[in-house]
Amino acid sequence: MTAAQSIELSNYRDQHFKGSRVEQERRLRNTATLYVGNLSFFTTEEQLYELFGRAGDVKRIVMGLDKFKKTPCGFCFVEYYTREDSEMCMRYVNGTRLDDRIIRTDWDAGFIEGRQYGRGKSGGQVRDEYRTDYDSGRGGYGKIVQQKILPKIP
């Protein structure tokens, strides 16, 4: 499978990308940046450097943060120095278990300041707001279920 083919198979797309779909696709074909999802809220930056460093030289990791609490909210961006290292990560790290969760990596068109914050109404990830199952690695029940279980304090 070539790098271009793996891009076509990628499910993740930044819906807030500033530019055309063609420009986004061009950047995805050449990027050395990955979006990493399904992380535990308790995964540390050090753990991420250790895991992703096995695939190549990591330039930086940007942790996804709850936009209100500034606590980790289950995703990050990993920037490698080279496309080759990021391809190694897509091949060998995607789908591995970290902190008892199967993580997923997808190509990203490049990190821009501000994208590290969760886009959900409550500050975290949208998918965590609608989750109806209990997931200790991602803070328990989803926000909607929590609101039904816990009465609002005036």
TrEMBL record:
Domain of life assignment: Eukaryota
One example of a Gene Ontology biological process annotation: primary miRNA processing
Subcellular location: Nucleus
SMART domains: RRM (SM00360)
InterPro entries noted in UniProt: NCBP2, NCBP2_RRM, Nucleotide-bd_a/b_plait_sf, RBD_domain_sf, RRM_dom
Residues of the RRM domain: 32-110
GO MF terms, alphabetically ordered: RNA cap binding
Keywords: mRNA processing, mRNA splicing, Nucleus, RNA-binding, RNA-mediated gene silencing
Entry-linked SUPFAM superfamilies: RNA-binding domain, RBD (SSF54928)
GO cellular component, one term: nucleus
Family the UniProt entry places it in: Belongs to the RRM NCBP2 family.
Quaternary structure note: Component of the nuclear cap-binding complex (CBC), a heterodimer composed of Cbp80 and Cbp20 that interacts with m7GpppG-capped RNA.
Function: Component of the cap-binding complex (CBC), which binds co-transcriptionally to the 5' cap of pre-mRNAs and is involved in various processes such as pre-mRNA splicing and RNA-mediated gene silencing (RNAi). The CBC complex is involved in miRNA-mediated RNA interference and is required for primary microRNAs (miRNAs) processing. Also involved in innate immunity via the short interfering RNAs (siRNAs) processing machinery by restricting the viral RNA production.
Name listed for the protein in its UniProt record: Nuclear cap-binding protein subunit 2
Name of encoding gene: NCBP2
